[in-house]
Specification:
mainly alpha, 15 helices
Length: 358
Amino acid sequence: MLSFIVRRLLLLFPVLTGILVVTFTITRMIPGDPCDVMLGEKATKAKCKIFKQHYGLDKSIPEQFLRYTLNVAQGDFGTAIRDRRPVSDLIAERLPLTIELTVIATVFASTVGILLGVVAALNRNSAADTATMVFANIGVSMPIFWLGLLLAYFFSLTLKDTPFFIPPSSRLSPGVSIIPLAKVWGLQNLKGFQRFMLMLVSNSAILNALLTGNTKLLKDALWHLILPALAVGTISLSVIARMTRSSLLDVLGEDYVRTARSKGLRERLIIYRHALRNALIPIVTIIGLQIGSLLSGAVLTETIFGLPGVGSRAVEAILSRDYPIIQGFSVLVAVIYVFTNLIVDISYAYLDPRIRLK
């Protein structure tokens, strides 16, 4: 197991190199000049020359890539063109919300999706099976932006002034704020990677609330993430439900399941201890793949619900041709996805002892 993990971590370096190459190339292919976008009518040749020299855009493409790669290796993603702030600071401010949204949506989609898939498989060709699969097909067919607007309208306007009201936008309610952990713990002098990690944890409303014991902040943060998590997680839920049903039906037809029943084991024990565990391998694979969809779906969800996450800021960066932000966010999301796949591969050995990671 340890040797497998080490090999996969070593293979991470060529993968990251490929990610850097693709990200750098695509950002340079975006139509438009950053100088023209940022300076507008003031974009004279003299000012654009100074602008490009300041951000290194006057160098050749290979030289820009080499310089960018060396900086990333040191944890420096550059300086945002529009904000004129380190991209690492923007990541530390924006990424925690996107991770919170992705985790909650994944938990929701996995829990409900597996439950619906099990119900459909155990009641094959019944009304429950048909209803579950109809719901799954509808869920897959609904665009995120349409579902997000529909949820916001129903829970925020139709159910306004009722106990079922859920806020349609913003991260926290007025009067509720996040207190920086550096201030609470007296760690204002941290620098480099330690400062970056502390900012990541501090800007996560849920982690911040758990570490400081702020129940009001915790409840408010979770309350505001309900609708975005439902919107971005519904498609993944539907895919997981369909895969669970298909995988469990295949397993229920195996000889060892019939043998377990002939021995008189309880049906619940047969389903959850024997059948479902063996059916989980393709399900876990789908869940790992869906995390990438949830991260990409967060772009639309955060824009619709006005959440200050990576997705909404990436859209702004693309429109303003802010190369450092686009590259920094893309590389970071890709790294998260790669490590997610590593965790999925490791989980195979736990779910099925016959699998040996050598």
